[in-house]
Structures are given as C-alpha cells and as structure tokens.
C-alpha cells in the first residue's frame, strides 16, 4: 500500500513538473510569436506600394530629413513644370497655374498676374503657341532654413512654323509647410524671381547656342 501511494506521489510530481515545463514552453512560444508578429507588422509598415500603370511598385518609407534634398528638388521641378508648361488652351493654362500656385507664395502669383496683364497667355492662345520646359539642374542649400535654391532650365516655344529656345534661370527659397493633396512634398516656394529668361539662337557655323 505504501509503495502504491509512493508511486502515486511520484507520478503526481512528474505530472506537475511536466505541466510546469509545458506551461513555460507555451509561454515562451506565445511571447516569441507575439514578438515576430510585432516585428513583421513594423516591417510591413515601412513598405508602401504604389499602383502605376496597372503595376504595384514598392517604395520604402524613410525619415523626412533623409528625403529633404530629393523632395525639395522634385517640388521645385513640379512647380516650374506647371508654371511654364502651357498650351494654347485657356483651360489648360488655368489648370496648370492653379497647381503651380499651390506650391508657391504670392511671389509666384505676382509674376503670373504680371504676365496676364501683359497679355502673354492671350498671345499664346491667339498664336497657337505651346510652351515646354526642361530642367537642367537645381542647386540647393540645405545649411539654413528656409532653403535657398537656383533652378536652371530651358524653355521651348513651339509654333506651327518654328521653335524658339529660351534660357531660364530662377531663384527662391523653400520653407516647410503641412503636406496635402495639392502640396504632397510639404514645401512652399517663397521670394521666387526670374533671373534670366532670354532667347537663344542656334549658330549655324559653330553649331552652338548664343544668348541674344
């Protein structure tokens, strides 16, 4: 009888020890699973998928400060594209100017109003002239805020009979603002001015452009 009770006591201790080991193992597995799930969730949050032309493209998120040069240059490029890309259509001009003026302060609006008062846009429409711009380079100083920039670009005024090439140089400053659908980069161009906007002519003898 005592042997029987001893066997029962031993079995109980074994079952108790086994149960404790099992509980500890389950706890460790649960903690590991929670950790891996949290890690996977964080990793997934760092990836952004952009749908372009029917294809999903992956983009990796990063800190704002890491992308400032890229985003700033793209903001400047977008502004100049909208401001200087024009077709002989009042609705196209109005739409592009509307997008451009979301990206800059009153200095851009003042230039727009000056061109409008000089009938620049009416002349494009009446002459069936399209205007295009190509950015050559953008210099950017990130040492102090607001960020100073200078943009070098080329314009083309396309007529039915000829194409006029122009050299364009502008400068201004960028300050941080809240991001929005109309201003995805979260910058605002201020104190924007045109330094150079001159016709260039192809020299047939030297095969090079000269500023007139």
Description of the molecule:
The chain is an alpha+beta fold. Helices cover 45% and strands 33% of the residues. The protein has helices at 2-45, 64-84, 90-101, 106-117, 120-126; strands at 47-52, 55-60, 130-141, 147-158, 163-176, 187-203, 208-211. The strands form two sheets. A five-stranded antiparallel sheet has the order 3-4-5-6-7. It has a two-stranded antiparallel ribbon with strand order 1-2. A hairpin with a 4-residue loop joins strand 6 and strand 7. Helix 2 (64-84) runs antiparallel to helix 3 (90-101).
Offer a few descriptive terms.
212 residues; 7 strands; two-stranded antiparallel ribbon; Conjugative transposon TraK protein; Conjug_transposon_TraK; single chain; 2 domains; 5 helices
Describe the structure in brief.
The chain is of the alpha+beta class and about 210 residues long.
N-to-C order of helices and strands: HEEHHHHEEEEE
Query: N- to C-terminal separation?
Result: 118 Å
Walk across the major sheet and give the strand order: 3-4-5-6-7
What's the mean pLDDT score? 83
Instruction: Give me the CATH fold name of the largest domain.
Output: Nuclear Transport Factor 2, Chain: A
Oligomer: single chain
- Give the helix tally: 5
Radius of gyration: 32 Å
CATH superfamily of the largest domain, by name, is: VirB8 protein
CATH class of the largest domain: Alpha Beta
The outline comes out as: rod-shaped
Number of DSSP strand runs = 7
What is the helix fraction of residues, given as a range? Answer: 40-55%
Protein name: Conjugative transposon TraK protein
InterPro entries: Conjug_transposon_TraK
């Amino acid at each position: 009888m005592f042997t029987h009770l001893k066997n029962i006591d031993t079995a109980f201790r074994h079952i108790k020890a086994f149960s404790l080991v099992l509980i500890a193992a389950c706890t460790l597995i649960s903690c590991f699973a929670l950790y891996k799930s949290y890690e996977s969730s964080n990793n997934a949050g760092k990836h952004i998928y952009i749908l372009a032309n029917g294809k999903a493209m992956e983009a990796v998120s990063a800190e704002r400060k890491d992308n400032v040069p890229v985003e700033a240059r793209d903001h400047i490029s977008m502004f100049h594209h909208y401001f200087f890309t024009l077709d002989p259509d009042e609705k196209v001009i109005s739409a592009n100017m509307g997008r451009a003026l979301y990206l800059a302060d009153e200095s851009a609006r003042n230039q727009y109003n000056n061109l409008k008062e000089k009938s620049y846009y009416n002349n494009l429409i009446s002459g069936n002239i399209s205007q295009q711009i190509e950015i050559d380079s953008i210099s950017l100083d990130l040492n102090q805020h607001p960020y100073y920039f200078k943009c070098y670009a080329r314009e083309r005024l396309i007529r039915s009979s000829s194409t006029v090439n122009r050299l364009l140089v502008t400068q201004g400053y960028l300050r941080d603002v809240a991001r929005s659908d109309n201003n995805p980069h979260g910058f605002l161009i201020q104190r924007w001015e045109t330094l150079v906007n001159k016709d260039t002519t192809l020299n047939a003898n030297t095969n090079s452009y000269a500023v007139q």
